[in-house]
Amino acid sequence: MAVRGRFWVGVWLLAALGALWVVIARSTSALRYARALEDTRQHRVQLEGRRAALQRRLLAAQSRAVLVPRAEDRLGLRLPADSEIVILTVPQGGER
Question: pTM of the full predicted structure?
Answer without folding.
Answer: 0.57
